[in-house]
């Protein structure tokens, strides 16, 4: 099998796209209003209470209507969520429990899971988001960007792009319970035959994380004909996945070795006004607060040309308007804990970059499984049905105004 699809390393046009390998993708969520997400769940509950207590024009102002959502419009409940479906203005109901999401790359936040408040919540993602699911999130191509092409998470991602060029969200599984991998039909069988060993779906995701590179058509993914090279990339990708899962799915929480773990050396102020990095001291200075060690690689870690730590800080300190201004009065301790973990995540990922670069150099001169070979093997073209959501429902979902539908 391997001999039929092996091809000399060619240009990017000869390499399969991520869209070839993980064909079902979903556009990023579009919330439509900034106040439905927040770093702390308590802020969302307070915002809900203010909105629910308001009436008429005041509620309209706080809601921030759009063409898709207004206080007077009903909407279906999100899959797996028990929320009101009548117009918010008529019957808001209690605030649903906020859920943790990945807001753009590496920023864990909270979201109110009520479709009456969200312009485009992407219900197809909610239907397959469970304890078995993993998501690959494209960051969108930015010229001269040396950051990661995509990331992975066990949380529901919103797909937000800091550079304003969002990519796609690709679930690893098409059905709940880790059933039916979102992979081109026949791909794992082909790879298993090529490498002489079983290739589970998570190994494919690990390889994608380690080896994908950008192109105008979307991420390209070279597939080596050599098993040793494949095993090497999967090992790197599994470590990247472990770091990004942050303890989910039984993984260890990201921790740096003793002596390299970041600690708070001076308490962070209640209202920090700026963040900077002192390279010589490896210190992150936040107002009068101080965290170290923070290596330069973590400080300068960028996605889409945007520095991740500065983006994280800016989202928590920028003044909001309306309901988005409702939040903690000071700097909650959990923010510091989140920041320390984010520093560890970025430091560990930056530490894997030399191994990634060496892998990419090795791939430049290696035989790869080209798109033409995948066509010959019957893996491509992908059937149209594989690019659409699977029918995953065995029960009714509540639609607008309490009506039910079976999809």
Write a structural description.
By secondary structure, this protein is an alpha+beta fold. It has two domains: 2-254 and 363-405, no CATH class; 263-358, no CATH class. 31% of the residues lie in helices and 14% in strands. It has twelve helices and 19 strands. The strands form seven sheets. Strands 2-4-3-7 form a four-stranded mixed sheet, with helices on one face. The radius of gyration is 23 Å and the shape is globular. The two termini are 39 Å apart. Mean pLDDT is 92; it is low at 1-12.
Q: What are the main properties of this structure?
A:
single chain; 407 residues; alpha+beta; 2 domains; 4-stranded mixed sheet; 12 helices; 19 strands; globular
Present the secondary structure layout.
Blueprint lengths: L1 H4 E2 L10 H4 L15 E2 L2 H13 L2 H8 L35 E4 L5 E4 L11 H6 L6 E4 L11 E4 L2 E2 L11 E3 L1 E3 L3 E3 L5 H9 L5 H11 L15 H19 L17 E4 L8 E4 L4 E4 L2 E4 L3 H4 L2 E2 L2 E2 H10 L15 H32 L3 E2 L1 H6 L20 E2 L5 E2 L2
Helix pairs in contact: 7-8, 8-11
């Amino acid at each position: 099998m391997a001999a039929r699809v092996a091809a000399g390393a060619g240009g990017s046009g000869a390499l399969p796209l991520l869209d070839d390998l993980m064909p079902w993708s979903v556009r990023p969520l579009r919330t439509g209003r900034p106040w439905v997400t927040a770093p702390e769940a308590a802020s969302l509950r307070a915002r809900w209470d203010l909105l629910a207590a308001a009436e008429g024009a005041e509620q309209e102002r706080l809601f921030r209507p759009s063409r898709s959502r207004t206080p007077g419009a009903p909407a279906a409940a999100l899959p797996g969520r028990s929320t009101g479906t009548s117009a918010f203005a008529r019957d808001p109901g209690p605030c649903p429990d906020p859920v943790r999401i990945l807001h753009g790359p590496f920023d864990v936040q909270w979201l109110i899971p009520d479709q009456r408040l969200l312009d485009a919540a992407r219900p197809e993602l909610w239907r397959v988001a469970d304890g078995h699911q993993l998501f690959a999130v494209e960051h969108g191509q930015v010229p001269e960007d040396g950051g990661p092409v995509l990331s992975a998470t066990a949380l529901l991602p919103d797909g937000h792009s800091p550079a304003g060029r969002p990519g796609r969200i690709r679930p690893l599984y098409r059905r709940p319970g880790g059933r039916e991998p979102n992979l081109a039909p026949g791909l794992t069988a082909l790879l298993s035959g090529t490498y002489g060993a079983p290739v589970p779906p998570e190994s494919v995701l690990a390889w994608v994380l380690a080896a994908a590179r950008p192109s105008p058509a979307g991420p390209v993914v070279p597939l080596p004909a050599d098993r040793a090279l494949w095993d090497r990339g999967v090992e790197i990708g599994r470590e990247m996945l472990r770091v990004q899962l942050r303890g989910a799915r039984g993984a260890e929480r990201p921790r740096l070795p003793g002596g390299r773990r970041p600690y708070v050396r001076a308490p962070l102020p209640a209202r920090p006004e700026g963040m900077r990095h002192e390279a010589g001291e490896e210190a992150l200075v936040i107002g009068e607060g101080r965290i170290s060690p923070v290596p330069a690689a973590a400080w300068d870690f960028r996605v889409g040309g945007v520095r991740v730590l500065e983006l994280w800080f800016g989202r928590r300190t920028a003044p909001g308007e309306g309901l988005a201004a409702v939040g903690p009065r000071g700097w909650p301790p959990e923010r510091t804990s989140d920041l320390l973990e984010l520093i560890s995540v970025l430091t560990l990922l930056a530490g894997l970059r030399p191994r990634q670069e060496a892998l990419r150099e090795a791939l430049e001169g290696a035989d790869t499984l080209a798109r033409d070979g995948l066509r010959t093997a019957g893996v491509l073209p992908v059937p149209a049905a594989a690019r659409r959501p699977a029918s995953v429902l065995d029960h009714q979902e509540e639609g607008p105004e309490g009506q039910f539908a079976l999809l």
